[in-house]
Amino acid sequence: MTDGALQYACGIQGAALSGKEKNIPMAATLQEILLAPDTRPKVIADCCTLIDQEVSDKSGISGTAVKLAYKTVNAFLPGHIRHMVESLLPQIADKLEPYWADFSISGGSGFGDYLAKCGEEVSEALLSVADARAAASGRPTVVKAYSTVRGSAGRHVEAALPHVGDLVIKYAP
Asked: For residues 66 and 152, what is the distance between their CA atoms, to the nearest angstrom?
């Protein structure tokens, strides 16, 4: 997707770059920012904390399903959530990259707000990583827990996007 198409899809109007602006070096990629050896363990810890917080904040019927699925995975496979964060972080960074690049060019102040403006599109991009992993999993408990909550996952991820953006900004130079 081109920058202009991304801006249009998210309803964000951007100005054309002048010749001077085009010569400015490209901002660091999310892979470079989030996966740097000194940073990656901190990002993983923050992601796990964010997931814990988001799950604990859920309410209602779908919130109860999310909490039950999370509890089930943690009970049967301790450390699995952290392992998944560690292994999926590069793919998540790749999925967020087009939004990060466009946000960096737009000069916006809050990446979380930017992600929220493209909420459904971003949440589905992120969930495509989890969907692929679940489809390839050989662990029936994990697959069943994931399939139980997948239907409502889009809106849960979408609601968390401002916090995801804040987490990224925490590590951005």
From this structure: 9
Structural domain boundaries of the chain?
A: 3-171
Quick one: DSSP state of residue 79?
T
pLDDT in tens, 33-52: 999 999 999 999 999 999 99
DSSP 108: -
Length of the chain in residues, anyone? 173
- In angstroms, rounded to a whole number, what is the distance separating the alpha carbons of residues 120 and 109? 21
What is the C-alpha separation between 164 and 173, in angstroms, rounded? 16
Please give the structure tokens belonging to residue 104. 């960096």
Average pLDDT for 134-163: 86
User: Could you tell me if 167 and 43 are in contact, meaning their C-beta atoms sit under 8 angstroms apart?
Assistant: yes
